[in-house]
Design goal:
Elements lengths: L1 H29 L12 E7 L6 H9 L8 E7 L6 H9 L5 E5 L7 H12 L4 E6 L2 E3 L3 H9 L5 E4 L9 H22 L11 E4 H6 L15 H9 L4 E4 L6 E3 L5 H15 L4 H19 L12 H17 L12 H19 L8
Parallel strand pairs: 1-2, 1-4, 2-3, 6-8
Antiparallel strand pairs: 4-7, 5-9, 6-7
Amino acid sequence: MTITLIYILLGITFLLLIFNLLIYSALNRLFNFKKNIEFSTKISVVIAAKNEEKNIQSVIQALAEQNYSKENYEVIIVDDNSVDGTYSKSNTLCAEFSNFKVIRAEDKFYEAKKGALDIGIKHAKYPYILITDADCVPENNWINSFANEFENNYDFLFGIAPYTKTNSVTNLITRFENLRAHIIVFSFAKLGIPYSASARSFGFSKSSFNKVGGFKNTTNTLSGDDDLLLQEAIKNKLTIGIITNRDSFVFSNSKEVFSEFVNQKSRHTSTSIHYSLNSKAILAIWHFFNLISLLSIFAFPFGTLFILPFFIKIIIDIFVLNNFQNNFGYKINPILFLFLQINYEINLIYFFIRGLNFSNRWE
């Protein structure tokens, strides 16, 4: 029995090594930064805002300061029945920019954020759409970086969206989780297996959006305006690209209260339940290998060889995280990686169980 377990653990360790070798190779090929050449692609930026009076000024200012010709992009802010001063403040701030406008989300066809985005996309006059959130701050070459890849005929694109650093433990955990997710999402996409994206930095051609039926097939959950839409692009065999330029990141603030972070992650996990069978199978295999390797340390009483998968996994994780974290907008002390990685793996199980019965709402 013990010999059989050893063979199983060694087999899992070997497969985990192969997985990580592929990920490391993909990450090495991923960051090929390009010169900032301005393009003339016509782009509409659509933002759904609900009760964002405190945040709306930052995103408007960041979009007004983009290194992109004002004649080649417009910004549409869709106020989704806010009960604070989001609409009036947006109108005041946007009045000085001829390429900015604010509309209300009236007669929504879809619930929640998707309905507001759908209205904004219908009002867009340009053939390419970028979306971000009202509490985000895109860097000054965000639009131009997407324009570059749209020129390469991609149907859907997504970029890097880090969280801004604060001094709270919740922020540290959130930033690490985001870093870990980015490494998997972007490396898998580079390997030709895209499965997820963030609405904080997401774009597509209007024709491709219409080709997949817009948000029609993403209504199983109130969230999923990003990754479920990407899943539809995959089903329709559309081309999917990634944006990795350092000056195209989209920063936002993380949750500072741990319970709010838990709710956020549970909501995201509840969306992943609606991924395609292939995406779920690949992710299940990946997380299974990682989890078994992590738990192998508890088999130590049966022999010292059982702890080998644990140490190999931790060493690989720390190496990959430390080598590529800066590429994703982070600088986390490597000394904390062991604790954060173990916490991350355990949280995956908790968020999955909680996400099975999670109820979404657009706040």
